[in-house]
Amino acid sequence: MADPTDTRDTGPRAGTPLWAFLAGITVIGFTALAVAMLRLDPAGLAELARTPLFWVLTALVVLGELRPVMVSSATAVGGTYPSTMFTFAVLLHFGLPVAVLMQAVAVVMNGVVTRKALHRVMFNIAQSTLALTSAGVVLGLFGIVPSPAAPWVPTGADLLALSLAGIAYFAVRAALVSGAVALHERRSITRVLKASLGPQSLVYVALLGLAPLVVVVMTHSPTLVPLFVAPLAAVYFTATLSMRRDHQAMHDELTGLPNRKMLIVSTEEALAEARQDERVGLFLLDLDRFKEVNDTMGHPVGDRLLQMVAHRLTHSVRPGDVVARLGGDEFAVLLPSIRDAHAAREVAARLRAALTEPVRLEGMSFDLDGSVGIALYPDHAPDFELLLQRADVAMYLAKEGRTGVELYQPDKDRNSPERLNLLGDLRRAVDNRELRLHYQPKVGMATGAVHGMEALLRWHHPVHGQIPPSEFIPLAEQSYLMRQLTEYVIEAALEQASRWWHSGLRVQVSVNISARDLLDSALPEQLEAGLAKLRLPPSAIQLEVTERILMGDQAYTHETIKALAVLGVPLSLDDFGTGYSSLIRLQRLAVSEVKIDASFVQRIAESDDDYRIVRSIVDLVRSLGLSSVAEGVESDDVAIRLTEMGCEMGQGWLFHKPMPPAEATVWLREHIETQPEIEYGYRSGVTQTA
């Protein structure tokens, strides 16, 4: 079974340790091959070539080199080729020159069939030649020097010589191949040998142990030699079934990548062998907007996309790094050895760069992107589970901040014990209705008229005092509490709006909701039921949602958005200017007003750039027939500039800070009873269908 993470066909850079090792072994091996060929008797070889046995053995060696016996999908140096049995038998019976010649031909055929890189083919010829040479030297020490003219047949008295020759053969091959793998993957040779020596040695014992029996049969009944294919096939298929079960247990079925179990094993090995001057890195990568591809194009296209992503990731990391799929569109990357955080960021940036290349499927082009979270050992965590958890925290920070790559930051970890305790307290506060709404007015810049009141959630913790919304709202968004919290806020806001409207204070109440809540099918039902129960018009409440809603196509096609438009509940776009919205996207969404983010508004008196940004937004909003609201108005200078540029409404401490319901009611009576009644709802000319 092919390993999608195998990058050994990529040639090493000249001058690297791997290049030096491969070049050195290749030179030594081909020198040994040349020496063996010089010792080969052409006449003896020609005579041997006239016998059917020679061609049967050649065919068995070549066929045996095409598919290895795999006993474990985790074996670092690959499988063991069945050709070993027949090559070793040729070595024992006809001598070293014939054996290395047959082996070299078989390795070349393997390279052609499996399309191995030239440097791998040459190294494999060299290392197999050196292994056979070492076995031939051991046999020579016992006075055993076979040749085509003088074949040798072992007996029971030669058991020691056979055993030592087999050990020499196995030791040389294992050392050379493990050394190449260790240098290629930048792992310690001890770790490679530990992972491969056990499974490999069992197969080699079986194959090399059968070789003397092959020689005996070759001597007495050459036509029976092909029968050795039967036990060989039994070994092969038994090992294949075992390996397949092992592979299925440790790898993802769709992509062929290691799964969570394999990642755990690899990470624990890397942590056990980590050096003091280096780090172990664990990345968590999540694709952005993958669900849209699945929903639009179907799961088969989504599966093919995941396979392409797996291929890109495995060819964007370094040899020895492990790319795993944890499920869905979530991948993990293990860096067994990384210098520092800066180097880890470079690898993560390379992964994202590979993802952003457009993908063509089903005649369509997809623009992919992903968010990567990084956690390092021992800086951030001492074991796998905590590393994965903290990489997950960093990944969500990257998603929220749209930065693409984030390193774990303890001060932003929402999964700390303190924050988990806070989440429990928040749940109890919601259940016990301990949260309160305060209200901040939205005032006309030119007239001073009250256009609405924004409901702002407040939580006074019995122990910690006032908890800022910036702390507990994100906590709720990452848990099951957000929907319950939204339902509570809408219910409380509707009740307050009802008290105001039925007492003559007809003021619109705005409620902030998340994009996820806006797409919740239960939202229109809750609003319709609440408005009917409290005898309120739809314009009595307004929903504010952040600009991020514009980034997904669901905002323009979702049934919930359509239901809200039919119901007549207006939408307001909050924090405009902080995202990446386009004029076309804004025009397609049924909103009645746009609120300009306070980060721009507060600096328009000092920054010409911010002044131009705000003015451009005001002009854009006016051209679309929408209302503009400036947030964070805190000084007369800012208010004057906003009025001059034509901004309709303002909100901020200049007009009033957020007030509890009783204080807000008194303030409204002082301001709203002296002004003309304001009509709420969609402005003329604004499309009301989503």
Textual characterization of the structure:
- The chain has 26 helices and 16 strands.
- A hairpin with a 3-residue loop joins strand 9 and strand 10.
- Helix content is 54%, strand content 13%.
- Helix 1 (17-38) crosses helix 5 (96-114), helix 6 packs antiparallel against helix 7 (159-185) and helix 19 runs parallel beside helix 21.
- The chain has an 8-stranded mixed barrel with strand order 8-9-11-12-13-14-15-16. Strands 2-3-1-6-7 form a 5-stranded mixed beta sheet, with helices on both faces.
- It has 690 residues and is of the alpha/beta class.
Mean pLDDT: 82
Structural class: alpha/beta
Number of strands: 16
Strand content: 5-15%
Sequence-ordered SSE layout with sheet pairings:
Blueprint: H1 17-38, H2 42-49, H3 52-64, H4 83-94, H5 96-114, H6 118-141, H7 159-185, H8 189-220, H9 229-250, H10 260-272, E1 279-287, H11 290-297, H12 299-314, E2 322-327, E3 330-338, H13 341-355, E4 359-361, E5 364-366, E6 370-377, H14 384-401, E7 405-407, H15 417-431, E8 436-444, E9 450-461, E10 465-467, H16 469-477, H17 481-501, E11 509-512, H18 515-518, H19 522-534, E12 541-546, H20 554-557, H21 559-567, E13 571-576, H22 583-588, E14 593-596, H23 598-601, H24 608-623, E15 627-631, H25 636-645, E16 649-651, H26 661-672
Parallel strand pairs: 6-7, 9-11, 11-12, 12-13, 13-14, 14-15, 15-16
Antiparallel strand pairs: 1-3, 1-6, 2-3, 4-5, 8-9, 8-16, 9-10
